[in-house]
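Self-study notes.
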Amino acid sequence: MTMNNKAISSQIALRPDFATIAEWVKPNTKILDLGCGDGSLLRYLREERNVLGYGVEIADANVLNCFHNDVNVIQNDLESGLSSFESASFDYVILSQTLQAMRHTESIIQEMLRVGKEGIVSFPNFGHWRNRMQIISGQMPVSEELPYNWYDTPNIHLCTLGDFEALCHQCNANILESRVTNGNQQVKILPNLMGKLAFYRFERSSIDSMY
């Protein structure tokens, strides 16, 4: 089933982060999407980059929607690791707006580095100035990127750009490229203050791969 141009444009308008991720994915590659939801990103990448994609998702409803989207999906809990996948079996492993909901953040980054030649992560930037102002006012931030209240949020490990870069260093991940956006606009000036959504593309450090 092929998406027409109108459907693709509608998908980009709904999730502009899809287009950013697609720019980093080479055509005809093999993709693993962790926490793939209803499979929309994989379907988009298949149409735009002709990728061979697989998703990992735990929620029953999302797994069913993946089938409706004609997306290959494995029902599994990411917290249990990626032991069912061989090392370097994918060109890219993607974790799109799911990092902040992971309990074992360091472990999932290390598993991404093991299973994929490159990792791509996107997450809401907790350092955005509106989030800082809400904290100063005495409340936990609520925004379009962080739509939950403190008492019902699935987000347990919120981070800033600096936090994630420190994690990459700790995990021996070499950052290849990063981008910070606010809606459809890329933020180049004071990204940790002005950017709402962060994207990172990384690979295992060449030093680490020697061992």
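Second protein, same conventions, sequence then structure:
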Amino acid sequence: MESSREYARCVLHADMDAFYASVEQRDRPELRGRPVVVGGSGTRGVVAAASYEARTFGIFSAMSSVEAKKRCPDVIFVPGDMARYARESRRIFDVFREFSPLVEGLSLDEAFLDLTGSERLLGPPREIGEELRRQVRLETSLPVSVGIGPIKMVAKIASGAAKPDGLVEVPADGVRAFLDPLPIRKIWGVGPVAGEKLEGLGYYTIGDLARATPGELRRELGDWGEGIGRLAQGVDLREVEPHREAVSISEENTFPRDVQDRAVLEATILTHAESVARRLRRQGLLAKTVVLKWRIGRRVKEGPRGYPARTRQITLIEPTDDGDIVARSARSLLTDALAEPVRLLGVGVSGLVDEKGNSRQLALFAEEGSGKAAVAPPRRRRLNRALDQLADRFGDDVVKRASQGDARHATLSGQWKKGSRDTHGPEPESDSAEE
């Protein structure tokens, strides 16, 4: 499987080390060498980032703040500043673009760079990677780890192996030797549930999966099994995509206390719907589907997945970018969420289409009570444009509807949210979370 055609590319994955925590330690000398967590310190707080000093106590991203305190009573919580991290991220990505025009941002602190053909101009891949690391530190005084490989998955795994503050290069003829001994959950896209299933079938390492025949994988796992089997063999045809399109847009928050009051939930839905709709309009997109997400307040098992997530969705008659329509559609899905108190509530949209390529004709009729609303009338669209202009100039929170709630996040989102905007500079360009 390791043909020269498959391995003609050279991909670099750059990943900042404990990005949020590193920024705080750089800017606050008293935090250096101390266990630092960026995130909420309350009972509903979540670790957005942990310094390497905190990680020695077993503290990691997405862990509850309560658990972090148990593991290290001396841990220092910092609320974080997403605007500051976004500004640092823009400086970092400016450095990345000096090394390649093809940069695919995965989050504020990590990206793929396509270095294919760069050797003639910049030298061997390892030298390019080391120079990139040097330039990032020179520009920002922050550490970055780099992985280099012939495919995206290998480069990403290699950057993890390089942490902290290192570089690992995997040559084309060393891909299988690098991948085979690794745990099966290192495969890109294999999470806890899929990992348990694969281990239950006897696939504990990537090599175990790579040695299985396509027929075996199809019988056991269907098309998905064949796909991850190819990844296990080091076959990944995905290109570095500098202008990766968003497939969905969402906003969510965790409440300080569990909520069952319909008025509070509906006000929160409106807040999220307006934010989602504003991001749609800024990107020139319309959404065909509205999704309501919630987590119940009752813990059913230990661990980060102890509070089950529920989702419901509805397809609209016409795609929309109007917050009122998104909110009404989401509220029509709320009944199930009222069965018991919820700790988290979110609104999302999917089925995104380009506004310019969509025929925006008003539907003559909408299904009463269905939530499948027509597109907003012209007067409503003019109001939305006026509100967008105010938000662009003064920030997204400058104007709110009277019925909106105060939906505060329990911790940092960690995402580059396409279509979001702050008052500190241009918006980021991609959409993902810090790992």
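Instructor comment on the second fold: The radius of gyration is 23 Å.
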